[in-house]
Amino acid sequence: PLPAEDAEFWDLPYNEAKQRLTDLFEERYVKRLLERSHGSVKEASELARMNRSYLTKLLRRRGLRGGPED
What we know:
It contains three helices and no strands. It is mostly helical. Helix 1 packs across helix 2.
């Protein structure tokens, strides 16, 4: 479930609530990109229309990796 569906979420300070949603979005988004691209960071960055180096940074931040060719 999304944190926004949790009543306690709305009692958090603004910056903490925003950070939690951003973290959740980034993690789910990059995982889905990797699924769609079959692990190819190059293809995932093209799907997202995102610079490959920035996507690599997001993946590292989330403890994720692309396939062996990346």
